[in-house]
Amino acid sequence: MAGAAVPVPVSRHAAVVVVLVLAAAHGAFCGSSHVELAAGVVARGGNAPSLRAPRGNVTGADGAPAPAPSGSLAGCGCGPRPAPWQFLNQKLEALWPVIQAFKKTITCDPLGVTATWEGPDLCSSYFNGTKYKGFYCDFPPSANTTLTVASIDFNGFGLCAPSLAGFVDQFPDLALFHANSNNFSGDVPDLTHLPFFYELDLSNNNFSGPFPDAVVPLGGLLFLDLRFNRYAGAVPPPVFALTVEALFLNNNGFDGRIPDSFGSTGAKYLVVANNQFTGPIPRSIYNTSATLSEVLFLNNRLSGCLPYEIGLVEGLAVFDAGGNEIAGPIPLSFGCLRDVEELNLAGNQLYGQVPDVVCLLAKTGKLRNLSLSDNFFHSVGHHCMELVRSRVLDVRRNCILGFPDQRPPLECAAFYADPSKHCPFIPHIPCDLPGYHHPPAKAALPAAAAHGHGHSQPQGQGGGN
Ligand SMILES: *[C@@H]1O[C@H](CO)[C@@H](O)[C@H](O)[C@H]1NC(C)=O
Ligand SMILES: *[C@@H]1O[C@H](CO)[C@@H](O)[C@H](O)[C@H]1NC(C)=O
Ligand SMILES: *[C@@H]1O[C@H](CO)[C@@H](O)[C@H](O)[C@H]1NC(C)=O
Ligand SMILES: *[C@@H]1O[C@H](CO)[C@@H](O)[C@H](O)[C@H]1NC(C)=O
Ligand SMILES: *[C@@H]1O[C@H](CO)[C@@H](O)[C@H](O)[C@H]1NC(C)=O
Ligand SMILES: *[C@@H]1O[C@H](CO)[C@@H](O)[C@H](O)[C@H]1NC(C)=O
Ligand SMILES: *[C@@H]1O[C@H](CO)[C@@H](O)[C@H](O)[C@H]1NC(C)=O
């Protein structure tokens, strides 16, 4: 994939539009974070939270209104500590030194945002003011008359700081921390004591080392984005048991096998692309069938046989495992992916016939892009011919006789002679398929199976991945 290694927030396969509808702000962690990862969408939406809640009287714990004179010391960037009565409430008074201490650790600030972090108006944005850029306030459920910092959004600020510890973890009512495109690094602090926390975006920063352990116990997390950093090593199995709706781990240096716990993920959007993962796609993927919609495995070093179980993930809209070393025929179970729009298996070691039942999905389902180039397929099903013509199906650089732009015959012969590449062929189709399962339901399945058998050379015997 072009640009795969370039650490930019906007990439074809990290395509995410995050729309935060924080209508009810803090009450919103019961599902207000709406994430759309549309296939082919490349833009990452600015996800500045819009925090709107009914405005009450602007009075603090001490009942004082909040005028805000603040003589800032020019040059220093850190004004004098405001008097307690100048803060809206004690929560904000307690947060002032936290922000000032963090400000002192910041070593670059290309947009000059930290200059606004002075004075007592931490909730300036709530009143449409210009102080404390990046900080957003709301009323927490636990103290619903006390305005406090509910989310921090530093997206695109380009700030450099060696650590977030002692900062993010010091906002007791924090629900979101977004830090896309900064230069933060160091350890992710323990956030388990923040009861409302549900969204963490550390994408496109300078984090490195092993997977950040601190996120693993975050029970209420709905959104975790670690992409475009320099994390490496194995992903701990419990990560896939997180309650997240969206999990982005792409464009790091993660390696090792994708754990079998993969099947416990309740995520709708899961991206592990552009890492160094090895081993097979876990067969436990069948267990995600109620939730998984878009999954991107592309550009790793995944191997093994393409699991039959993928065809059981009913709601899949995007499946992308391109640019790996995955072998085998396409299981006929893929014909059951009625919602699939994009299926990318290009650049693997797949072989046999491109199943007619999969090509039929362009007619009976939603398939509009079937990328199978750079494999070893030797033929295509009847309905696939049309798709090649209409450019829905790309089968360039395969082993299909009579087709343009195919591999040299010798390369194909060598591949087909190598038994180490062979996988079992599973003809079973675990769903009713129009045109296959009727008219006479009895005869249809064996016919489809025989069809597949007859053309899917070579075939392994028994066993799985
Ligand atoms: C705000 O407080 C003032 C005095 O403390 C009171 O007169 C006024 O009605 C309050 N306004 C609202 C909207 O509660
Ligand atoms: C802040 O801006 C919003 C949207 O522009 C507007 O609805 C609201 O009335 C403004 N509030 C204040 C205090 O100006
Ligand atoms: C605020 O909290 C009180 C008591 O916990 C509750 O009765 C009230 O409905 C809450 N108000 C809002 C706006 O959530
Ligand atoms: C981080 O800093 C480096 C060097 O100063 C810069 O090249 C890079 O663009 C920065 N990254 C981000 C995401 O701002
Ligand atoms: C990124 O982190 C490395 C250490 O992990 C550090 O040497 C480098 O200066 C950091 N880059 C920026 C721009 O902060
Ligand atoms: C299936 O998912 C559930 C949670 O949704 C999990 O408890 C179970 O271990 C998973 N099973 C497999 C085989 O992945
Ligand atoms: C189909 O998908 C492949 C792989 O994701 C992509 O490279 C190609 O541009 C797509 N084609 C169309 C017409 O969208």
UniProtKB/TrEMBL annotation:
PANTHER family: LEUCINE-RICH REPEAT EXTENSIN-LIKE PROTEIN 3-RELATED, LEUCINE-RICH REPEAT-CONTAINING N-TERMINAL PLANT-TYPE DOMAIN-CONTAINING PROTEIN. Residues 1-30 form the signal peptide. The keyword Secreted applies. It holds the Pfam family LRR_1. InterPro entries: Leu-rich_rpt, LRR_dom_sf, LRR_extensin-like_regulator. It is found in: Secreted. Residues 445-459 have a biased composition (Low complexity). Keywords: Repeat, Secreted, Signal. This is Leucine-rich repeat-containing N-terminal plant-type domain-containing protein. GO terms for cellular component: extracellular region.
